[in-house]
Amino acid sequence: MKIRHFIICSIATIIVVLGCKKIPERSYSVWMTNKSKETISSYWALDPERHSYPDTTLSFGKEESIGYIIKPGNTSYGGVPLLTIEEWILRLPKDTLSIYIFSQDTVNKYSWSEIQSDYKVLRRYDLSIGDIHALYNEYDIPDIPYPPTEKMKNMKMYPPYH
């Protein structure tokens, strides 16, 4: 009976140890602040293998498009384990991060194929590392605002800043 108990405990320990994910030593924050009067959702094209600049089509799925839902006047706090946002951007094909911002009402009202075919984005930011540096706040954290601020007037976006 003791041997059987020992074997079961050993197998359980191996399963637990192999199934555990390594906890990152550090997580870097990125904020997105909604200063508009409507709820927005955003998709950050951080995967170098898929959906990254210069491909700015809405080739990702609807379930992927709702990365963060941010109510008016709120800030979303995202973390990037072990890498700064700049390090993520350097992994992308063109050193540019595309962030797609949608009205949550649009996402709820239209099919994804209509959103794709009519390109129903409120705004798409195509941010370089220099752009990200310009958006650091007083807490030394990148804070991406929507709608774009005067500070962003020379940054690449669609539709263009005006």
Question: How would you describe this structure to a colleague?
Answer:
The protein has 162 residues and is α+β, with helices and mostly antiparallel strands. The chain has one domain. 29% of the residues lie in helices and 26% in strands. The protein is built from 6 helices and 8 strands; from the N terminus they run H-E-E-H-E-E-H-E-H-H-E-H-E-E. The protein has helices spanning 2-19, 62-65, 85-91, 104-109, 112-117, 129-134; strands spanning 27-34, 40-44, 68-70, 75-81, 97-103, 123-127, 143-146, 156-158. Strands 3-2-5-6-8 form a 5-stranded antiparallel sheet. The longest helix has 18 residues, at 2-19. It is globular, with a radius of gyration of 20 Å. It starts with a helix and ends with a strand. 19% of the residues are buried.
Task: Please give the structural blueprint.
Elements: H1 2-19, E1 27-34, E2 40-44, H2 62-65, E3 68-70, E4 75-81, H3 85-91, E5 97-103, H4 104-109, H5 112-117, E6 123-127, H6 129-134, E7 143-146, E8 156-158
Parallel strand pairs: 1-7
Antiparallel strand pairs: 1-4, 2-3, 2-5, 5-6, 6-8
Essential attributes:
three-stranded mixed β-sheet, alpha+beta, five-stranded antiparallel β-sheet, 26% strand, 162 residues, 6 helices, single chain
